[in-house]
Amino acid sequence: MDNLKDCIDINSLENLNTHLSYQNNSENSFYISKIPDLCKEKLCILGIDEAGRGPVLGPMVYGIAFCPLEESEILKTFECADSKALTEEKRDDIFSKLCSSTEIVGWAVDVISPNYISNSMLSRTKHSLNAVSTDSAVGLIRAVANAGVNIDHIYVDTLGSKPEKYQSFLLNLFPNYKITVAKKADSTYPIVSAASICAKVTRDHALQVWKFQEGIELTHKDFGSGYPGDPNTKKFLKNYCNPIFGFPQIVRFSWSTATNVLEQEAYDVEWENTEEDHKDSESPNNVSIKSFFKMVEKPAKKKRTQHQFFSQMCLSRTTEF
């Protein structure tokens, strides 16, 4: 994602929907608007926020928005605000305005698949959700920087409970930029609000056009918002839990909500030859490969017998060489 070679340019909500509907939902995807020439010439502010961190269903989306500092008042005219405080219709309307303002505003989103999240968090070498989030935010910054955006100041909605720690981390990575990390940044800085709207709209529409690779015929209304407390989401998890294979790929297996359903609905599995049982499985009948490499003791040197001539002549050795 550090370069935009394989990224998809988006110029409208309809265009975004089209690409989302054909996307392989088991893989991550990256979408970006046209980079305004003005953003390459003028000093720019840049905002970062995410959508879909908490749900048990669907992707998590990180969004980034940028515009020249001297043109940032346009965001207020769009009524950019915290995406969670806006209606779906209002978010779509603002997103369309951002797409049509190609001479001033740019944006990009990183769509992180539920399959990727599950694999990261459940792999032998754990990669936490915070680590996945950090990788995405850093990748977005590098991508637009490599595309020529003249970044001056970056505003980020905090990750975790200590904004100063995250801010220090980003400053070490990007010492040439001013960076502000704050709680509720999406409510404080319009540029972060714009990023939040891009992320939220992308996630919502990714769910609306989601195609189940498992052949399930459902609409987004059938599985709900994806949040653990949603009754439709709870019903979906229970009804579409295969007792052997688990859930469709829209589900984040690493969530405790999914784990609890699996414990109730799925078959128990007993695994043989686990690491814990390795020592117990060793028995006298099991020959270790190490036995083929044991050191073999060399036989002691035999003492040379003296020729009978010397004994008959009563001769003995007086000096040993």
UniProtKB/TrEMBL annotation:
Belongs to the RNase HII family. Eukaryotic subfamily. Residues 43-267 form the RNase H type-2 domain. It is an enzyme of class 3 (hydrolase). One of its GO terms (biological process) is mismatch repair. Its EC number is 3.1.26.4. It comes from the Eukaryota. The lineage of its organism: Eukaryota, Metazoa, Ecdysozoa, Arthropoda, Hexapoda. Its cofactor is Mg(2+); Mn(2+). It holds the Pfam family RNase_HII. Manganese or magnesium. Binds 1 divalent metal ion per monomer in the absence of substrate. May bind a second metal ion after substrate binding. Transmembrane segments: none annotated. GO terms for molecular function: metal ion binding; RNA binding; RNA-DNA hybrid ribonuclease activity. The keyword Hydrolase applies. It catalyses: Endonucleolytic cleavage to 5'-phosphomonoester. A divalent metal cation binds at residues 49-50, 157. It comes from Aquatica leii. This is Ribonuclease. Catalytic subunit of RNase HII, an endonuclease that specifically degrades the RNA of RNA:DNA hybrids. Participates in DNA replication, possibly by mediating the removal of lagging-strand Okazaki fragment RNA primers during DNA replication. Mediates the excision of single ribonucleotides from DNA:RNA duplexes. Keywords: Endonuclease, Hydrolase, Metal-binding, Nuclease. Signal peptide: none annotated. InterPro entries: RNase_H2_suA, RNase_HII/HIII, RNase_HII/HIII_dom, RNase_HII_hlx-loop-hlx_cap_dom, RNaseH-like_sf, RNaseH_sf. GO terms for cellular component: ribonuclease H2 complex. Gene3D superfamilies: Ribonuclease H-like superfamily/Ribonuclease H, Ribonuclease hii. Domain 2. The keyword Metal-binding applies.
